[in-house]
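Run log // design_07
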């Protein structure tokens, strides 16, 4: 559960950084 949430955050942050 925590792993999935962390992955989602990592993806969101990566998308933000990419933008």
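design_07 sequence
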């Amino acid at each position: 559960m925590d792993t999935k949430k962390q992955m989602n955050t990592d993806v969101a942050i990566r998308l933000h950084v990419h933008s």
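Helices lie at 2-18.
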